[in-house]
Design brief:
The complex is a heterodimer. By secondary structure, chain A is mainly α. Chain A is built from twelve helices and two strands; from the N terminus they run H-H-H-H-H-H-H-H-E-E-H-H-H-H. Chain A has a two-stranded antiparallel ribbon with strand order 1-2. In chain A, strand 1 and strand 2 form a beta hairpin. Chain A is elongated and about 110 Å long. The longest helix of chain B has 33 residues. Chain B has one domain. By secondary structure, chain B is mainly alpha-helical. The chains are: A mainly alpha, B mainly alpha. The interface between A and B is large, with 34 and 40 residues. Chain B: One of its GO terms (molecular function) is oxidoreductase activity, acting on NAD(P)H, quinone or similar compound as acceptor. Chain B: It is a multi-pass membrane protein.
C-alpha cells in the first residue's frame, strides 16, 4: 500500500501502474454493468453489481482514497447487497418477473425519462471543467481517514447531520409501518408446555410406528401394551391422506397372536393349528416367537444355567 | 478546524526498507503459515474435544495422531467431485473460491512482531499496514461470506438455500455488533492501523479497560465464523450441513479450509486489537528491559495468544449447545447491538471529556463509577412487578385412587397416595391388638 501514494503526481499525470489498473478494471466494470441490465436471474444481476462495487473500491484505493474504498466494500458490498441477496433468496430461487406491464405505457415513459437523463448528463459532464490538480499532499493533510473526518465533521457537518436524521426517520417509519399491536399475550415454549399439561394431552413423544417381522414402515401402527394398534403411532399426514395400513388387519392378526400366546402359556402347544391361523401360519409362528419374549422365563438360557449352578 | 488535539502517526510500522523479494517472502510465509495452521487446528480441535469427552481422539496416524488431518485432506482430494444437475454452474464453482481467497487476505495486515532483520533488511514481521487496516479486515470478512451465501443459493436445493439465507441474516446482524465493538478500540488507540493499535497497548492491553467490547467481540466472532453454538447455517440436525450439503471432494474441502482460516483470522484480530498483539505478557515483558519484546521473540507471544483463543473456540464447541434460531437473532439484535452501541457512546463521551477538558482519566472513571452506583441504588427503590397470582388449589392434600384408570398413576401436585395395602394391614392388626401406640402412616404430599 505504501507504493500507492503519489499515484496522482503533482503534475496531474497518472502513473503507469494506475493506468494499467484502470484499463483492466474498466472493461470488467462495463461488462458487469451490462450484466446487471441483461441478466435473466435476479441473483446474477445482484452479483454483477457486487463486481462493479468491488472494482470501484479498487479504483478508489488506487487513487489513495483508502478509507472510501474500504468503506465502499464494507457498507455497500457487505451490508446493502447482502440485504438485497437476502430478499431475493427469500422471494424465490428462480423467480423470473413477469413482463406484463401493470401501468399502461410505462415503457415509453421510462424510455423518455432515460433519454432525458442521458441528455442532461452529457450536457453537464461535457461542460464540466476541472481546476489544476493540487496533488495528494495538498488534498489529504494527514492520513486518509483523518482528512475525510475533517471534511465530513467540519465542512459538511450540517449536511451530514441532516442525512443522518433522514435515515433515522426512514428506519423509524419502516418500524412504525410494519409494527403490529399484540392483541393476545405471547405464547412461548413454556406457555405451550403448561397448556399441554393442563389439558392432559400426551407429554411424551408419540409412540413410534410398529416394527414387525415382515413389515417395517411408517404406515403400520404399533401395538400398545394391551395388544391394540395405536393410531397415534402413524404420522398424522399419512392418516389424513388415508395412506395408513389397515389397522383392522393388524388388530385381527394381534388377536390371533394373543390367542396363540395364551395357548402356549396355558398348556403344551396344540397339535393342530387353530382355525384361520393356517393361512397365516408363518406370520403366527414369527409373531408368537416375538411376543413370547416378554414371558418371564425367556432370559438367555446360559444365565439361568449359571444361576442354577451356583 | 482541527478537532483532534493530538495527531497520531497514521502507521507505526516502517515498511520503507522493503524490497519486492521481502514482500514475496512474507506473502508466501503467510500462506504457508495459514495452511499448516489449519492442518494443526483440525488435529488440535479433534484432540481437545476428545479429551473433553474423555476419549483419546485421533491417535493412529503419526505421533499423537498428528498426521490425521493430512490423511483427511488426502481423502477429500481423491473423492469423487460431483456437480449437482440443478446447480448454477459458474456460481457453484466460484463460491468456495470466494470463501477461501477472502479468508487468506486478512493476515496481510496482522502484525506478527516488531522490526527484525530479515536477510539483512530491517523490516517489520507484517506484510503491509495502512491507516484503515482493521476496516479492510472487516471488508474481507464481509465479502468472504458471499462464498457461503452463493454456495447455498447456487446448489439449487432447499437445505443449502435455507443455510444461505440464515447465513446472510447472521452476517448482517453479527457484523454490526462486531464492528461496533471494534470502534471503542479505534477511539482509544486513535487509529485503525493494526501496528498503531499494537503500539498503543504498550502500557495496558485494551481488553481490560474495554472489557464489554472484548466480550461482545468474542461472542460475535464465534457467530461470524459459523461455529458452535452459532453454526445455524450448517446445523446438521436441521439442515443436513446447510450451505455445503451439495458440495463434495475438493470444493467441500475449500469451504472447510475457509472456516478454519477464518477462525485463525478472528483470533488474530482479537489478539491484535484487545490482547496486546505481539507484546509479551506482563511479568515477561519486564525482564531485562523489555528484551522479550524485541527481535523474533514477539512471534512466540503472538502465536501463544492466537492458539489460546483457538482453544477457547474448541472449548466453547465442547461445552455449549446450538442456539435456537429465534433466540440467536434475539441475542444479536436485542442484546449485543444495543450493548455495543451504549458502550461506544460511553467510551466516546469519556474520551471526549478527557481530550477537551484535560481531566485525568482516573477522575472521569470515578465519576462514572459513582453514577453507576447511584443508578444501582435507585434501581433498588423501584417496586418489583407484581407476580400473577397462581390458580387456587384446594387446601390440604387430597387422597385419590391411583388405580382408577386401570393403571397405577403417580399423584398430581396436591394429591396424596393412600397408605399402601401393607401399611393398611399393619394398621388393622395394630387396632386388633389394641396396642397403645398407633402406627404412623406416612403420607407424602407431592408438589407444592
Amino acid at each position: 500500500m505504501s507504493a500507492l501514494p503519489a499515484a496522482l503526481l503533482e503534475s496531474g499525470e497518472t502513473t503507469t501502474a494506475e493506468a494499467v489498473l484502470f484499463w483492466t478494471l474498466g472493461p470488467v466494470m462495463v461488462l458487469a454493468a451490462l450484466g446487471l441490465l441483461f441478466a435473466k436471474k435476479a441473483v446474477h444481476a445482484a452479483l454483477a453489481v457486487i463486481v462493479v462495487m468491488i472494482s470501484l473500491a479498487f479504483l478508489y484505493v488506487a487513487q489513495d482514497a483508502v478509507f472510501l474504498g474500504v468503506v465502499q466494500v464494507v457498507v455497500y458490498t457487505g451490508a446493502v447487497m447482502m440485504l438485497f441477496l437476502f430478499v431475493l433468496m427469500l422471494v424465490g430461487v428462480d423467480s423470473s418477473d413477469s413482463l406484463v406491464e401493470t401501468i399502461r405505457g410505462q415503457r415509453w415513459i421510462g424510455l423518455l425519462a432515460g433519454i432525458g437523463l442521458g441528455v442532461v448528463l452529457v450536457g453537464v459532464v461535457g461542460r464540466a471543467t476541472y481546476g489544476p490538480p493540487v496533488g495528494l499532499t495538498g488534498a489529504a493533510v494527514d492520513d486518509n481517514p483523518t482528512g475525510v473526518a475533517h471534511i465530513i465533521f467540519g465542512q459538511y457537518v450540517f449536511a451530514f447531520e441532516v442525512v443522518g436524521a433522514l435515515l433515522v426517520t426512514a428506519a423509524l417509519g419502516a418500524l412504525v409501518l410494519t409494527h403490529r399491536q399484540r392483541l393476545t399475550p405471547r405464547v412461548g415454549q413454556k406457555e405451550r408446555a403448561d397448556a399441554r399439561v393442563a389439558a392432559g394431552a400426551t407429554l411424551t413423544p408419540l409412540p413410534a410406528p410398529g416394527v414387525y417381522a415382515r413389515h417395517n414402515a411408517m404406515d403400520v401402527p404399533a401395538l400398545g401394551p394391551d395388544g391394540q394398534p395405536l393410531e397415534s403411532s402413524v404420522p398424522r399426514v399419512l392418516r389424513v391422506r388415508g395412506q395408513e395400513a389397515d389397522a383392522e388387519e393388524f388388530a385381527a392378526r394381534t388377536q390371533r397372536v394373543l390367542a396363540g400366546v395364551s395357548q402356549v402359556r396355558g398348556n403344551p402347544p396344540p397339535k393342530a393349528a387353530p382355525e384361520g391361523a393356517a393361512v397365516n401360519a408363518p406370520d403366527l409362528g414369527a409373531a408368537v416367537s416375538d411376543s413370547g419374549q416378554d414371558g418371564p422365563s425367556t432370559g438367555p438360557a446360559g444365565v439361568i444355567g449359571q444361576e442354577d449352578g451356583k | 478546524m482541527r478537532i483532534l488535539t493530538e495527531a497520531v502517526a497514521p502507521v507505526t510500522a516502517d515498511f520503507s526498507n522493503d524490497t519486492w523479494w521481502i514482500w514475496l517472502i512474507k506473502a508466501v510465509a503467510i500462506v504457508v503459515f495459514l495452511l499448516t495452521s489449519v492442518l494443526i487446528a483440525i488435529w488440535f480441535e479433534r484432540k481437545v474435544v476428545a479429551r473433553m469427552q474423555v476419549r483419546p481422539g485421533p491417535n493412529v496416524h503419526g505421533p499423537f495422531g498428528l498426521l490425521q488431518s493430512l490423511a483427511d485432506a488426502m481423502k477429500l482430494l481423491v473423492k469423487e467431485d460431483m456437480t449437482v444437475k440443478a446447480a448454477d454452474k459458474l456460481v457453484y464453482i466460484v463460491a468456495p473460491m470466494i470463501a477461501v481467497f477472502c479468508a487468506l487476505l486478512t493476515f496481510a495486515v496482522i502484525p506478527f512482531g516488531p522490526n527484525v532483520s530479515m536477510f539483512g533488511v530491517n523490516t517489520p514481521v507484517q506484510l503491509t499496514d495502512f491507516p484503515v487496516a482493521v476496516l479492510y479486515i472487516l471488508a474481507c470478512a464481509s465479502v468472504g461470506v458471499y462464498g457461503i451465501v452463493l454456495g447455498g443459493w447456487s446448489s439449487g436445493s432447499t437445505y443449502p438455500l435455507l443455510g444461505a439465507v440464515r447465513s446472510t441474516a447472521q452476517v448482517i446482524s453479527y457484523e454490526l455488533a462486531m464492528g461496533l465493538s471494534l470502534v471503542s478500540v479505534f477511539i482509544l488507540a486513535g487509529s485503525m492501523s493494526t501496528s498503531q493499535i499494537v503500539t498503543s497497548q504498550t502500557a495496558v492491553w485494551w481488553f481490560l479497560p474495554l472489557l464489554p467490547a472484548f466480550v461482545i467481540y468474542i461472542i460475535s466472532m464465534v457467530g461470524e465464523t459459523n461455529r458452535l453454538p452459532f453454526d445455524l447455517p450448517e446445523a446438521e440436525g436441521e439442515l443436513v450441513s446447510g450451505y455445503m450439503t451439495e458440495y463434495s471432494s475438493m470444493k467441500f474441502a475449500w469451504f472447510f479450509l475457509a472456516e478454519y482460516i477464518n477462525m485463525l483470522n478472528v483470533s488474530a484480530v482479537a489478539t491484535t486489537l484487545f490482547l496486546g498483539g505481539w507484546r509479551a505478557p506482563w511479568p515477561i515483558s519486564a525482564i531485562n528491559d523489555g528484551m522479550f519484546n524485541e527481535g523474533w521473540w514477539p512471534v512466540l507471544w503472538f502465536l501463544a495468544k492466537l492458539w489460546t483463543l483457538m482453544f477457547v473456540f474448541v472449548w466453547i464447541r465442547g461445552s455449549v449447545l446450538r442456539f435456537r434460531y429465534d433466540q440467536f437473532m434475539k441475542i444479536g439484535w436485542k442484546v449485543l447491538i444495543p450493548a455495543a452501541l451504549v458502550w461506544v457512546v460511553a467510551v466516546g463521551v469519556v474520551q471526549g471529556v478527557r481530550q477537551f477538558s484535560g481531566l485525568e482519566l482516573r477522575s472521569v472513571l470515578f465519576v462514572l463509577a459513582g453514577i453507576v452506583v447511584v443508578g444501582l441504588l435507585i434501581s433498588f427503590l423501584i417496586p418489583e412487578k407484581k407476580q400473577p397470582v397462581p390458580p387456587q388449589r384446594p387446601p390440604g392434600p387430597q387422597e385419590y385412587d391411583p388405580y382408577a384408570g386401570g393403571y397405577p398413576v403417580p399423584p398430581l401436585p396436591g394429591q396424596v397416595l393412600p397408605p399402601s395395602p401393607r401399611k393398611q394391614r399393619a394398621a388393622a392388626a395394630a387396632a386388633d391388638g389394641e396396642s397403645s401406640t398407633t402406627p404412623q402412616v406416612t403420607q407424602e404430599v407431592h408438589g407444592g
